[in-house]
């Protein structure tokens, strides 16, 4: 698997977002921001047709300019008339918004950039979030999936994610943003959930986007639903081509010292951390986030059937050392359907943030039956939830294990598989990773 695919993939699956206040500046006033700007932007339009996957990469997107503090980013799919499109027509696999610095001398013709992840690149330098994954993997600042409409993303005052700080933009470069959007047009598909899980057989895909054969053990995942692939339709279904946009709404404040900067950390439950020595500087932690993972189903297990909800759960955990100090200001997870919850624990077992999905029950946009339409988020009282340098955090994600899901990575090993009530596992299933991101705040809550 190439890094490129891995990067793109990461965008997708499961995320917990935590915003962490880490800086040590003293006194900050807790004034509220009276003037919050809010602007709706539309991505370039892209075409889809029934079953079709659009995986779009747009560089130098419209984004608020200047030295500002982002308070919220939300997005949804709309058609050309601006009408919201439900998930059962256009499933939002994910969107991610990533920061980079572009060399000024580079001719700015963004339409000439390929429709793919271009990083690493000498003229377009990715500026990743504060952690936790390696290199360009899971590097975005903002991004969600099907839960986007129903998930709170506002960062409380006086905090914000600082962008456009001229001191952080090297000479000869400009700060830019790119967006990656992956949509699956579910109109008329034979197996909605299978298409959402990117099952290779439904896409009739045996080779990856670069034309290399996928191992037979790879049953599904992002390698099977790349741009322009098509999921199997019901016999005889016909539907029109349509153009869609991602509408993204950005809220921000002008930067000044009353705003406390948060840093964004995203944790991936597939991250396996290797420790190496860094000489005098002590241990170095090498992350290896895989983005997607696979579980096996316990479909045919008869034990625990009396309690359907708990009868068959899959729990995945990973331990991740944290190398900063800070207070959690915001947190939330990204899971795919079937997700039960995702939780970040401190070294002493305390819950730092636990986030749960909400499933739709109707037809209307934002409440699509059976879809994961929202995630709960954490807003601890600022100053009440602290993580410390050197603390080993545990990230846990729980999925129901009873329905068949697609396997994802062939070389994917299950770590810390701890299947409650699932003694004999059969049938590979796909699961998603779980990211947890924390943002850091500098502030008056910290002493010293
Ligand atoms: C930008 O690139 C596109 C695609 O390569 C090309 O068609 C177009 O003419 C270019 N525009 C400019 C202003 O160079
Ligand atoms: C699936 O792919 C194979 C090989 O590319 C092709 O021969 C076959 O017609 C495809 N089947 C469908 C249903 O598209
Ligand atoms: C799996 O479990 C969930 C939650 O208990 C339930 O809603 C769903 O119908 C089950 N699916 C199957 C195939 O048993
Ligand atoms: C996550 O869900 C499982 C299954 O319902 C439950 O046992 C567990 O307590 C939940 N975790 C948290 C932190 O709420
Ligand atoms: C479950 O059991 C049925 C009947 O014994 C069998 O046909 C099916 O293949 C089994 N499913 C899995 C996932 O093993």
TrEMBL record:
Superkingdom in the source lineage: Eukaryota
UniProt keywords, alphabetically: Signal
Manganese recorded as keyword: no
Pfam families reported for this sequence: SURNod19 (PF07712)
Leader sequence residues: 1-28
Alphabetized InterPro entries for the sequence: Stress_up-reg_Nod19
Keyword Plastid found: no
Protein name: Stress up-regulated Nod 19 protein
Lineage: Eukaryota, Viridiplantae, Streptophyta, Embryophyta, Tracheophyta
